[in-house]
Design goal:
Helix 13 packs parallel to helix 15. This protein has 15 helices and eight strands. A three-stranded antiparallel sheet has the order 2-1-8. Strands 5-6-7 form a three-stranded antiparallel sheet, with no helix packed on it. It has a two-stranded antiparallel sheet with strand order 3-4. It is mainly alpha-helical and about 425 residues long. The longest helix is centred in the first third of the chain and has 22 residues.
């Protein structure tokens, strides 16, 4: 490999820019729709329905271009891009160990996978190593999977370095310490036990973190972790969903006998509403659990969650931050992060559904989502160096409203890579 530090990043950027310009020329020959400067956004009109000429490679090249610009602005390797507020150009940074700190290195790993360029390999390795100590600390919440799997998980998948595997096993064991066998789920927020009087709370986001447990159990770790993950999914399936298959954000349980107390929200509009990103976590989480278990019960929940989400989407396939948010006097903000998470999940889910019509329905919906996210309405282009605009972090607290958010970018490029695999017959 080239030694990036000794050569200087300037040379790396020049080499990568040349590479991207070559890619751009190739794309122009293939599809005139994506002509134009590579350093500008790939503008296109918004479509409700997918078209056959959506160019995944051009969208990935756009991501590479934006990420290079982000790398150029980082003051040091410890600066982990997190969010860019509306109207701003500079990234705000995540601290090491925060639940979002794994998405920037995860994005870099995906760019390496997409291009095989060592620029991304070196950048991904540098940031991932900063996060490795977190694997050996006591889990402070359910977020270990969010931190570890995009960063360390992708690092191990793409390099095979056992250093990463060892870290993942430690993180999984630590996460499992938050499991309550009487309830049958992992405690999500220890801090909310006293603060909100939620004796044992489990959020729908926690479904995403089960992947860390499944990975460890299947790769030489404690086999009990598989049982914990399955039980968590079973309990969540039983209590976390309403009759219309929308989900609560938070399920609260009693610690004495484990009974379900209530379903509430923390980031949605109200306890009874469908928070968009929460529903996206449910679709993605249960799709992943089906992949790991092949238990058709979980496939059914994934499909039911997806159908509830798809039924209520606006025309451009990108949801408002909460599906029940009032439409007046102003339209509520959109949440591109929910669309990116769901698009990625639906591409995978479409491969598991035996009904060809339903499978195609999920794939077409995912492509439509990616088409719209790849339009000038949602891509950052010259506005800032993120991939996407118009995400919502925490509406009730007024944080990250109509912002660019790194986890939206992460799931966007993941969805693009998954679609590229499907297009190649993988």
């Amino acid at each position: 490999r080239d030694d990036v530090e000794s050569r200087g990043l300037g040379d790396v950027y020049k080499r990568q820019t040349c590479y991207l310009l070559i890619m751009q020329k190739h794309f122009r020959l293939r599809n005139a729709l994506f002509a134009g400067l590579l350093l500008a956004a790939f503008g296109c009109s918004s479509h409700t329905h997918p078209t056959t000429d959506f160019n995944v490679d051009s969208a990935i090249a756009y991501c590479s271009c934006q990420a290079i610009k982000t790398l150029e602005t980082l003051p040091d390797v410890d600066s982990i891009p997190n969010t860019i507020d509306k109207g701003q150009k500079k990234w705000q940074y995540a601290h090491v160990g925060s639940w979002t700190s794994g998405f920037w290195p995860g994005t870099l790993w995906y760019l390496y996978e997409a291009t095989q360029d060592t620029v991304w390999l070196h950048a991904a390795e540098n940031v991932t190593r900063i996060l490795l100590p977190e694997a050996y600390r006591k889990a402070r919440s359910h977020d270990s999977g969010f931190i570890m799997m995009p960063s360390v998980g992708n690092a191990y998948r793409l390099t095979g370095d056992t250093m990463y595997a060892q870290a993942l096993h430690h993180a999984a064991d630590s996460l499992a310490e938050l499991y309550n066998p009487k309830v049958g789920t992992i405690l999500s927020w220890p801090g909310m036990v006293k603060k909100m009087n939620w004796p044992h709370n489990t959020i729908i986001d926690n479904m995403m973190n089960l992947e860390l447990l499944f990975w460890s159990a299947k790769n030489g770790g404690n086999k009990w972790l598989y049982d914990v993950a399955v039980k968590h999914a079973e309990t969540t399936m039983k209590y976390h969903f309403r009759t219309d298959h929308s989900c609560y954000h938070v399920a609260v349980y009693d610690t004495l006998d484990g009974h379900f107390i209530k379903g509430v929200t923390h980031q949605g509009l109200a306890d009874s509403t469908m928070w968009a990103r929460g529903q996206a976590w449910a679709i993605y989480g249960y799709t992943m659990v089906y992949r790991e278990t092949r238990d058709v019960r979980f496939l059914e929940v994934a499909c039911q969650s997806a159908d509830a989400y798809l039924r209520r989407l606006p025309e451009d396939m990108v949801p408002y931050w909460d599906f029940d948010a009032p439409m007046s006097p102003l339209l509520p903000p959109k949440d591109a992060s929910a669309a990116a998470v769901t698009a990625s999940a639906l591409i995978e889910l479409s491969g598991y559904v035996n009904d060809e019509i339903k499978s195609r329905h999920y794939l077409d919906a995912a492509i439509a989502m990616l088409e719209n996210l790849s339009s000038s309405a949602y891509q950052s282009g010259t506005v800032n160096t993120a991939f996407l605009l118009h995400s919502v972090g925490h509406m009730p607290r007024g944080r990250e409203i109509d912002a660019s958010i790194m986890y939206a970018d992460y799931y966007y490029i993941e969805a693009l890579l998954r679609l590229r695999t499907v297009n190649k017959g993988g």
